[in-house]
Amino acid sequence: MPGKERSVVVNYFTKLMQGCEAASSLALKHKEEPLPFRKLVEMKIHLLFCSCCSNFVKQSEKIDISLNGFFQQVSEEPPFTAGTDFKAMLKEKLK
Amino acid sequence: MTPPDPSKWVDRYTDYLFSYAFFKTGNREDAEDLVQETFLSAFKSLPGFKGNSTEKTWLTSILKNKIIDYYRKKKSGLSLDEYLTATTDQFENSYFTGAERHFKADIQSNFITESPDAWLLGKEFQKFLEICLMNLPMKIRAVFTAKYLDDEKPETICKEYSITPSNYWVLLYRAKVMLRECLEKKGVLS
Question: Which of A78, B50, B51, B178 is the most exposed place for a label (fewest CB within 10 A)?
């Protein structure tokens, strides 16, 4: 590959590998809605070579599992308790 | 259809509604006020209850609308969009490094990824999660819980909290980054 074209390709890949914030946020968004094709490909390439971002995406999936379990449980076992005086006052008001 | 029975509401639903409101407001007194207003509104509109949903779902939807009003009235300080813009540097400097904005090294911690799903759903980890959720900045937590607790669609959340779609994604991303870091720290402590 001629020097000039090679440097264009190298610059493009260098730029792709910069910006974990942009790539990892796109990866999260892509879990819920489609991305424009170019952004999708660039994000995938970044993740392929960036262990930080691919790790973040795995961690995010695990956190989602935990979050969904947690919020399902909130309905059955509320994590916080209202004060007894407050409950007594409510009972009076609802008579 | 079983008719609503207000005499049983307090024992049946107060803790759930209080937890719901406390997650979204971060303030005990405000949460109690909102629950009280919810019960009183529901009590007044009992004749209008058609039984299309359960009593609990009906009360939750009243509370949800009260919380949205609470945020609309509470216009003190920055709007959510302004808050996100104002805190961009602080967020990026905390979690990313260099002009290239690479993740800081701690992203390679693997407490979360190496934990089996059963542990992530167990009481101990869920307690960490509760602590970390409550540590999220209030403005972020209200929207974050609208997604995970209410399972609402992005367009609904944007409308309810007057936030742009792009900032909605920024907000969810920040919440996830902060939550991840907090959970990894708890993992180190465990």
Answer: B50
